[in-house]
Structure formats: C-alpha cells, structure tokens
Design goal:
The complex is a heterodimer of chains A (about 550) and B (about 425).
Chain A: H1 2-23, H2 30-43, H3 47-55, H4 62-72, E1 76-81, H5 84-89, H6 111-116, H7 119-133, E2 137-142, H8 144-149, H9 153-159, E3 165-169, H10 181-188, H11 192-197, H12 202-208, H13 213-224, E4 235-239, H14 245-258, E5 261-266, H15 271-275, E6 282-285, H16 291-300, E7 303-306, H17 309-312, H18 316-330, H19 334-359, E8 364-366, H20 374-384, E9 389-394, H21 408-425, E10 432-435, H22 439-445, E11 448-451, H23 453-456, E12 466-468, H24 480-496, H25 523-540
Chain B: H1 10-19, E1 24-29, H2 32-43, E2 52-54, H3 61-64, H4 67-81, E3 85-90, H5 92-97, H6 101-110, E4 117-121, H7 129-139, E5 151-158, H8 167-180, E6 184-189, H9 194-198, E7 203-209, H10 214-224, E8 228-231, H11 236-251, H12 257-271, H13 275-281, E9 285-290, H14 295-304, E10 309-315, H15 322-327, E11 332-337, H16 341-350, E12 355-358, H17 363-369, E13 373-375, H18 393-409
Parallel strand pairs in B: 1-2, 1-3, 3-4, 5-6, 5-7, 7-8, 9-10, 9-12, 10-11, 12-13
Helix pairs in contact in B: 1-7, 4-6, 7-10, 8-18, 11-18, 12-18
Classes of the chains: A alpha/beta (about 550), B alpha/beta (about 425).
Chain lengths: ~550, ~425
C-alpha cells in the first residue's frame, strides 16, 4: 500500500512539474485577463444567462429592451405610459438583473384612462417627472394599454413645456414580430465567404423588426434628439453596450494610431453627445443592427459600416484586418491604416505563435451546444490559433430546434455550409465533421473538448476535459481579442488538470435531455418549459 | 399623485395568489412580456417551482382575438401534466379586447380538461396588486366543499405568500409552533395543494396573518360559518408568543406555560453568543419597507425586542386591515403608506437610517444611502434562501440577529473623516 501511495505521489509531482514547464512560457497579462472576464461577466454570466437564458423559457417584450436602452444614456429617464404593473416588473430588466432600475416614473393608467384616454395624465406626469428628477431627457415608453387606446403621445410632447428633451418611443409590448429564428439563423449559418458576396437577409429583417425595444429607442433618438452638425473629419460614432469596455479600448488604441477620432459612443453617452452624433463622418453599427445607422444615413447623410462580426465576416485575424481597413477606406485613411494593420498583424501573429506551440501538443474537438456560429469558430481555431482540431461535432438533438422555429432545411443547410467551410480550410483528412456523436466517445479520442457552458454539466461526471468557450470571446473587435482568446484557452487547459475526478454537486442531478438544465424529475417546471416552447411555436407558425 | 409606484397591479397580485397552489398551474393569457415579468418574479428565487405557462399572444391577436390560444394552452397543460387546478389569468391587453375567457373555461371542460379551471381577469388598469391578491383568494371559495363537521383544534392560515424570502422556512416554523400547542394546520392559502384548499371549511378557525386575505375570511364566515381572527406575523419572541396566545385564546386551547418558557430558553441560549453585538446595535436607526402583512410586525419586533430605532416604516401595499394594524404600531418616526418611490428615497436620504429592511427593489436606495439591505419582502430576485433558518417564530429570532449583525459588521467602511475633502488635518 505504501509503495502505491509513493507511486501516486511521484506521478502527481511529475505531472505538476510538467504543467509548470509547459505553461511557464505563457506570461499572461493579469489586468487584461481580468478586464476580459469583467466584460464576459457582464455579457454572459449574469442572471440573464444563468437563469433566464439557460431556461430558454421566455422572451421579454419590446418595453423591456426600451427601458434598458434608455437607462444606458446618462441623464435620461424612462417614463412608462401604462399601468403600474409594467413599471413594477420592468424595473428588473434582463440585461442588468444585478441592478434593478431605480427611477421609473409611470402614468399608472387606470380604467378611467382606458375609457377616456390618458393624455392628460401623461402631460401632468411629464411635468412632474421633470420637476422631481431634472433629467436631460425623458423617454416616454408606450405599453400595450397605451398602444391600444391610441393616445396621441407626440401631440402631448408638442404641448408640454419642460426644459429638457422629451421623446416618444413606440415600445408597446405586443409589437413583437412574427418572424422566427429560422430566418435569422439561415443567415448566420452562411460561411464568411458567402456572406461577403451574398446580400445578407439579416439587416433587411432588422429593418422591419417591430419587436426590438433597443432599436425603437435608437430610432427615436435619431429622429427626435439628434441635431444637424458640421461634420468633423475622420470622426466616428460607435455603437456600444454594457460589456464593451475591452473592445472599446482596442478600437480607441487602433483608431488613435490611424488618426480616427471617436465622436460618440452610442448609447452609453450623455444626451448632449447624442445630439452631436451627426458630426461624425461614419457610424459603426454593432449587434443592435443597422436600422439606426440607416436612419442617420437618410436623415444626416452619415455613412455606416456594420461592425457586428457575426454578420460582416470580420471574425478571424483576416476579418479584423478587413474591419479596420474598411473603416479607414470610408475615411480615406487607407495609407495610415495599412501601416498600422501590418504592425498589429505581425505582433498578433508573433504572440499567437507562442500559444500555437503549446496547442500543438494536444488534440482538440469542437463540440458546442449550438452550431450556428461554427463556421466562424472553426476558422478562428484552425487558421488563427493553429489549434489541432480533430473533430467538429454538430449536435442537433438537444437544441429543441422546432421550438426555436428552426426548420429541417435550415439545419441541413447549416451542416452543408459547415462541410464546405472545412473543405476550404485545406487541413487535410485530419479534421472530421461528425453529426450527433456522443460527447463521451469523442472525448476519449482527444485531449480537450472545446464546448460551452450549456453542455458542460451534462458530462461533469465523465472523465472529459471540456473547455467552456463563450461566444463573446470570438466576436471581439480588433487584434487583441484573438490573443486574449488564446490566453483564455491556455488558462482553461491548465485548469482542466485540476478539475478531473471531481464530484461536483451540480453533476448529481438528473437533467432533462431536451430541456437542459431543467431537472428531469421536476415535472411542473418541465411543464412550464415545454408549454413555453409549444405555445411560442404555435404563435410563430 | 404617485409618480414612481412602489407596488404592482392586479395581474401580479392574482399570479401571486394562484401560483401558491402547489399542485396547480397558472396559465397567463398575455403577450410575452407580461409572462416574462411573472416568470422572473418566481424563477429568480426558486428555480424548481415554476408552474406557469402562457398563451403566446401576438400583436395580431389583439385585433382578431386569441381565446383559441388560451384554450389550447389550458388543454395542453392539462393533457401533459394533469394539475389539480388551473388558473387562467389575462393581462391588460387581452382584457381590453374582450377575449371571452369564461367560454374558454366552459369549452375546456367540454374538451376533456377534468380539473377545475378558474378564469380571473387580471387587467392591471382595474386595480392594485393588493386587490388582485385579495380578489383571487376570495374567488377560491367557489371551489370549497362544505364539511359535514369541522375539526377541532384545526386552523387555516390565510395570507401566506410563497414568493417572499424564507417563506417555506417560516411555514415550517409556524407549523411547528402550532403543533407544540396541540393545533393542526388544515390548509394554507395559498401554500397548499388544491384539495386542501377545497377542504378548508373543515377548519375550526381561519387565521388571517397581518390582515392579508381578510375578504376570503369574511366570505368563509358567511358561507361556512368559519370564524376568523387577524393576527400579526409572528416575528420575535414576544410576537411569536402573542401569535400563539391569540389563536389559542380564540379556540379556547390552554397553552402550557412550560412550552413558551422552553422556547424562550432555547432562543436565549442561541442568542447569548452574540450578546455584545446586541448591545452594540441597540438604538441603531433602521427603516422597514414592505407590505402591510409583514412590515409593521417587523418594525415592532426590531423596536421592542432588539432596541433598534425605526426611522421610516413604509407600507408598500396596504391591505384592508392595515389601518387597524398601524393603530398598534407606534414605533416608527414616520409611517409612509404606499409612497412614491422617489419620495421614499428622498425621505431615507434625509433620515439617519443605518440599516434597511426591504426587497430587491430597494437595492438601489440602499446603495445610494450606503447602508446594508436585508431582504424580507416581495420581490426577492437577487437573493436566495436555502437554509432552514426561518424569519418567523421563536427560531426566527436568532436568524434576524444573525442577519442584522452580519450585515453590519460585514461592511467595509473607510473612516468617515477620510471622506472630508480639504480637511487639512483639522479634525
């Protein structure tokens, strides 16, 4: 027995020494990694993801997005034109569950107002809101009730006399669109090459989207707040959101080198900055779509570029290069940009090369919960990070695609697209596409699985080294994002060494296969979840 | 005029009441946002107990009607999970358009739904959260069965909410205390199975906690001759003793003094570990923000048993018994009834509150006035209560002391002098 214990101790010591040796070359920048994780926390690990998104159990209404968007603006206050209940539960908005909204005045529409109209009450509430809060902007947000009774909100705004901006946002909760995820996913599924050449349907969809409260607020700001300005040369507006800190730092750094000035960070800015937004030469639209940018183009003639990587083929190192170059071209700064891009690319490649040497010693499989983003992630892993991917796995079984109104045709198209991406990568026969495999089988053939949080706990008890790679780590702006992704993977690989043979509490539960992470033996919760999927697909059909 | 409402509307009140039926199911006939709101209010503090579905209304249904979707939802819920009871609640939008949900109830029965289905109009513009709750509870009387005879020493608890911090621990403690004096809980409205609610008239007494659900108690008295008594929420040693004595007095049940003494002795033995801290918090200014069922009782306990000074008692939802309750609560410097949130914030900023008792929605205020927040009232969305420690009853006394002392000594505070700018060392 003593000999066995000595053997084990020796083996552990050797393994620990090897670990140190392998990782000692990678000197991580602690501050950068911390910032990256703060961004990630904000984007993905908040309540919204853990509770609501993992349940995949509800979609909030247009009002919710509108409330959140308004609270991003410094000095702005949302005014709910509806019953008290709307103000009560929208105080908790999914994008900032950690901080319920503090100030949320409401007209408190009652039965009398439903019959005789709520315009008088709205007029009075606007004045009182100004007197109490002294905001720079009051955004009147419509609810289902005020939307149905048809109060003339614009008319009230014209009549009311308060020394601040007052805007109307058509945010009636019922104004959700009928279009299904299928239409959007079809576009996501296109490989980058095709996306560059084929006109994407997603922006067109967004242009029509009635159900997005974010977009409604941005439209209202363009129409009702922005003012004509003298154009400031080489300046841009950037669409920002919570969790954008690292990306903004990277963009600022690159822009400074090229000679581009940031005019406004839209919406995380002051009301005055929004008024001055038309001074920019170019808008960089983000994940909230291009509708606001289209609107600015029509009204103020501001050109725009879509910065959202999932649409524009700006993922991967090549994409980052293209992104910066496209912006520079719009501002006639190609020459300045070329030099910056050359230096940045060279530095990034050098840094990535250090990580690639480490990755080279292992075999990987890609096995995420969803597969919509696989074309982008495969290219990033294989081409940029030089990760020796052995398998790309697609699992269509646990996603409950019909409930997401994703058709069989779209699923098949996505698989075909994936095949064409792999063929185009020219990595030989070593990379195999596997549809609906068992994760435990794949895990035995590789050292690490690149997955995501949604899948991890299904298999925590298995001897599987699975690395949670959040989507937001892929869709970063600029060059640093790729290096940070590589650093993240390195850290996670290191952690995996200490995470084997654990007996975590979360792994002791019996999860439902289809509706993970809902527990299989909790019939009423499952009922709620199944009912949501059923009724949502009936609604969208 | 209330500008920033501190409470919700009828819809929320109805959902809170019906969702407490532990083997029932709530079907919401509403757009997705109303459903999402109710979902958060339940799922964020308890991820295993969501029993809720929605009809999936879309904009077009607000013109063409969607009662067929409501029927579909009810049938599917029943077909799949056979709940004992289904509450069908509509929100403001569909209520304005006049979807005929009474006919949905009728058709559901014809089309194979074997459990009772109750339609309740939850249109938010009709009334407040409190009346939504009261009316929903009262509507359950129609399902109650007249007993052949009542059971002695058996009571119903009325006005119990299953979405408040430590509610299940409180119920266990209340049940334990009542069992100790020889009483049995027949039904809890609403934290019982539907059949237990149906059998509610078997109890000898309805115990209305904090006056919450007074209407149903009055109605049951009319319909089934079940007498009722209003008691305060049992916080602290005195509050718990009074709770038991009030109920037992009404039922002519004698309490063995040894039982009370034993409870007090046990609590004292636990609490004496923190006796220095108890002296430390004596006189500390605090404020209490919560509904009229619990907040006045808590303020009274904090003041009379822990020696705290209650600066503000803010009643977020006022039930029909609130005025009488407040006649006996004289511990707060100021009582605010359903105040504007802005005014409450202002008042707290002007006061000397060092510790705030409230809900998740007071988080921002607590942050701004820089004091710890102890969550005890609805909604609880950023906090979970898994441990068996209750707030209510004799055993709850130690929980309160633990929460209060930990909240205070766990804070990191720089010296207040450091915050004085340009001090030049003159202080």
């Amino acid at each position: 027995m003593a000999a066995l214990e000595t053997d084990i101790r020796t083996k552990n010591r050797v393994e620990a020494e090897n670990t140190k040796k392998e990782f000692k070359e990678i000197q991580e920048n602690a501050e950068e990694i911390r910032d990256m994780f703060r961004d990630r926390l904000s984007r993905e690990l908040n309540f919204h993801n853990l509770i609501v998104h993992q349940y995949r159990h509800n979609i909030n209404c247009k009002l919710s997005g509108a409330v959140y968007a308004v609270t991003e603006i410094e000095g702005a206050i949302p005014l709910i034109h509806g019953p008290n209940g709307c103000a009560f539960h929208h105080r908790l908005t999914p994008h900032r569950m950690h901080a319920p909204i503090q100030d949320m005045p409401c007209t408190g529409i009652d039965e009398y107002d439903v019959i005789y109209g709520g315009e008088g009450k709205l007029h009075k509430t606007i004045i009182e809101t100004y007197q109490k809060y002294h905001p720079e902007l009051i955004a009147i947000l419509q609810t289902c009730v005020s939307g149905i009774i048809g109060d003339d909100i614009q008319g009230v705004i014209q009549e009311v006399d308060v020394p601040c901006a007052v805007i109307h946002v058509p945010s009636e909760g019922f104004a959700m669109d009928r279009w299904s995820s299928d239409m959007l996913v079809r576009d996501y599924a296109k490989p980058g090459k095709e996306k560059d050449t084929v006109k994407s349907s997603a922006p067109a969809l967004e242009a029509k989207a009635r159900g997005c409260g974010f977009m409604a607020v941005m439209d209202s700001l363009v129409d009702q707040v922005m003012e004509y300005q003298d154009i400031e040369e080489n300046s841009v507006n950037i669409e920002t959101s919570d969790g954008f800190k690292r990306d903004l730092e990277e963009l600022t750094r690159l822009f400074e080198m090229i000679g581009v000035k940031i005019n406004t960070t839209f919406l995380c800015c002051s009301v005055d900055a929004i008024k001055r937004a038309p001074a920019a030469e170019l808008n960089i639209a983000g994940w909230r779509g291009v509708r606001w940018a289209e609107r600015m183009k029509n009204k103020f003639g501001t050109e725009y570029i879509r910065g959202s990587f999932s649409y524009s083929g700006y993922s991967t190192l090549e994409g980052a290069e293209k992104f910066i170059f496209d912006i520079a071209s719009k501002l006639d700064l190609e020459g300045e940009a070329e030099e910056v891009i050359r230096k940045e690319k060279s530095r990034t490649l050098q840094e990535l090369d250090r990580y690639a040497k480490l990755f080279k010693g292992y075999e990987f499989a890609l096995f995420p919960f969803g597969f919509f983003f696989n074309p982008y992630s495969v290219k990033t892993y294989v081409c940029d990070l030089k990760i020796p991917l052995k398998y790309v796995c697609i699992d269509t079984r646990r996603m409950n695609l019909p409930a997401m109104t994703i058709s069989g045709d779209t699923t098949r198209n996505m698989i075909r697209n994936m095949e064409s991406v792999l063929e185009g990568l020219d990595v030989g026969a070593e990379l195999e596409l596997v549809v609906n495999p068992e994760l435990s089988t794949i895990a035995k053939k590789v050292d690490f699985i690149l997955g995501d949080r949604n899948r991890i706990s299904n298999y925590w008890n298995d001897d599987v080294r699975i690395i949670d790679v959040p989507l937001s780590l892929f869709y970063r702006i600029g060059f640093r994002g790729l290096v940070e992704l590589a650093a993240y993977l390195t850290r996670e690989m290191k952690k995996q060494r200490y995470q084997r043979k654990r007996k975590t509490i979360v792994s002791k539960f019996n999860y439902d296969e289809t509706y993970y992470p809902i527990l299989a033996d909790n019939s009423m919760c499952l009922a709620s979840r199944e009912m949501w999927s059923t009724m949502w697909s009936l609604r969208s059909s | 005029m209330v500008l920033d409402p501190i409470s919700s509307d009828m819809f929320t009140g109805a959902v809170r009441a019906f969702h407490g039926i532990s083997d029932g199911f709530v079907v919401l006939h509403c757009p997705s946002g109303c459903y999402a709101g109710m979902f958060y209010l339940n799922a964020l503090s308890d991820q295993s107990g969501v029993r809720m579905a929605f009809s999936g209304m879309h904009a077009r249904h607000l013109v063409h009607g969607a009662d067929y979707l409501a029927l579909e939802a009810v049938k599917r819920v029943y077909g799949k999970f056979k709940p004992s009871f289904i509450a069908l609640i509509d929100s403001a939008g569909p209520a304005m358009l006049g979807d005929d949900l009474d006919s949905v109830v009728w058709r559901a029965e014809k089309e194979g739904v074997k459990c009772p289905v109750k339609y309740f109009c939850g249109a938010g513009f009709y009334s407040s959260m409190q009346s939504g709750y009261d009316d929903s509870l009262e509507s359950l009387v129609e399902f109650m069965r007249r007993p052949e005879q009542t059971e002695e020493r058996t009571i119903n608890i009325i006005g119990f909410h299953t979405d408040e911090p430590r509610w299940s621990q409180d119920l266990i403690e209340i049940r334990r205390m009542l069992t100790n004096v020889g009483l049995r809980i027949n039904s809890v409205l609403t934290a019982s199975k539907f059949e237990e609610i149906v059998q509610a008239p078997r109890a000898s007494l309805n115990v209305v906690i904090g006056g919450e659900g007074l209407n149903i108690a009055k109605r049951m008295e009319e319909e089934f001759s079940t007498p009722y008594i209003v008691v305060q929420y049992p916080y602290g040693l005195n509050g718990s003793e009074e709770f038991l004595r009030d109920i037992c007095g009404e039922l002519n049940v004698k309490i063995e003094e040894e039982i009370i003494e034993k409870e007090r002795r046990k609590a004292r033995e636990i609490v004496e570990k923190a006796v220095f801290y108890l002296q430390g918090i004596y006189g500390l200014a605090c404020s209490v923000v919560g509904d009229s069922c619990k907040a006045p009782s808590l303020a009274a306990f904090l003041n009379s048993e822990l020696g705290l000074a209650v600066d503000v008692l803010a009643v977020t939802t006022k039930n029909n018994y609130c005025d009488k309750t407040l006649e006996n609560v004289t511990c707060a410097d100021e009582v605010m009834i359903e105040p504007d949130r802005f005014d409450l914030h202002n008042r707290l900023e002007r006061g000397d509150t060092q510790l705030l008792f409230g809900s998740t929605f007071e988080k921002g205020i607590a942050h701004e006035i820089d004091v710890p927040l102890i969550r005890f009232s609805f909604p609880e969305l950023d906090h979970i209560s898994l441990m068996s420690a209750p707030f209510a009853g004799f055993n709850g006394t130690a929980t309160w002391i633990e929460e209060i002392v930990n909240a205070l000594i766990g804070m990191y505070k720089e010296s207040p002098l450091l915050s004085i700018k340009n001090n030049n060392g003159g202080v």
